[in-house]
Design goal:
Keywords: Endonuclease, Hydrolase, Nuclease. There is one protein chain. This protein has 97 residues and is of the alpha+beta class. Helix 1 runs antiparallel to helix 4.
Length: 97
């Protein structure tokens, strides 16, 4: 079986890579039981460091919208040059819920 591909950065997610499920609509905003996507943990962290739960629910409930956000666009450009298992601490704190 092939490794899954992270829809945000479009790199492979090898089994040893830190990874997590992202709710396209946050659970706190009605997304419990809704669609999720498997992401690298670093990509997931960057989404939540960039956007609030309200912004995610209102304007960024698709991968296309997330990829079009200016900060996430820059992040994707940067992370694309890293190996698939790369992980580092995300600077800054998680945005408010």
């Amino acid at each position: 079986m092939e490794d899954p591909i992270c829809p945000l950065c479009r790199r492979l997610i090898p089994p040893e890579a830190k990874q997590s499920q992202h709710h396209l609509i946050p659970k706190l905003k009605g997304g419990k039981g809704g669609e999720t996507v498997l992401l690298h943990q670093i990509c997931h962290n960057e989404i939540h460091a960039t956007l609030t739960e309200a912004e995610l629910a209102r304007d960024y409930a698709t991968i296309e919208a997330l990829r079009a956000h200016p900060r996430l666009e820059k992040f994707v450009e940067w992370i694309a040059k890293r190996p698939p298992g790369f992980h580092s601490k995300t600077p800054g704190r998680r945005r408010k819920r």
